[in-house]
Amino acid sequence: MKTLIITLLLLNSTLLSLSYPTTPKAPKIETSGVRGYILCSIPKKYDHVSKFINKHWNAAKAVELDCGVPMAISLAVWALETQYGKKPVKRNNLGSIKKKHVYVTYNSLSEFYTDFAKVFKQDCYKEMNPKTVEQWAISLQRVNCTYAMSKKYYSKIMWIVQEFNLDLIPIKSETK
């Protein structure tokens, strides 16, 4: 870790060196490809959204490879449930996942991502066989799957997807 060395000249001409850690640099925002286009297209006033998407991009990609949920859906769900990272994430639970009506506590975000993927491996999602981002958004509030209880969940997710150009992310099944 880089340190900043401050050398002070004391009254008695003795030198004292103090070492302070520097502030870590912010994560680099990707500027190439679809990810770069999406992140660069978000207005500056939504800088927190860019940072949120950039932070969770790779996890969303891993979830898509694991269970087929499009990255756009995972990112939109996590953004909605955490107010784009502004709301403190309790229990490492970005998706507000409940089991037996109690919010699940995860030891790490990695553990959450794994469980999030498991939710979408349930038979009810396989039966619906969603192929598009819109179909996935609809499937989130289907009665037999019960991920989302709000009747407005679909429209909220689709607004996030469209407002921040997440619909430009290719879906794994479309790229084969």
Structure, explained:
With 176 residues, this protein is mainly alpha-helical. It has a single domain, classed as Lysozyme (Orthogonal Bundle). It contains eight helices and four strands; from the N terminus they run E-E-H-H-H-E-E-H-H-H-H-H. Strands 1-2 form a two-stranded antiparallel ribbon. The radius of gyration is 21 Å and the shape is globular. The termini are far apart. The N terminus is likely disordered.
Concise account of the structure shown:
The protein has helices spanning 33-41, 47-67, 71-82, 109-119, 123-128, 133-139, 153-163, 172-175; strands at 3-9, 15-21, 98-99, 102-103.
The H/E string reads EEHHHEEHHHHH
Q: Proportion of β residues?
A: 5-15%
- Mean pLDDT figure: 79
Q: Bin the helical content.
A: 40-55%
What is the helix tally?
8
Strand order of the largest sheet: 1-2
Largest sheet: 2 strands, antiparallel
Structural class, judged by helices and strands?
mainly alpha
* Beginning-to-end CA distance, first to last residue: 43 Å
* Second CATH tier, the architecture: Orthogonal Bundle
The coarse overall form would be globular
Question: How many individual domains?
Answer: 1
Q: Which class in CATH terms?
A: Mainly Alpha
**Rg of Cα set:** 21 Å
Low-confidence stretches: 1-26
Looking at the structure, the CATH topology is Lysozyme
Quantity of strands, as a count = 4
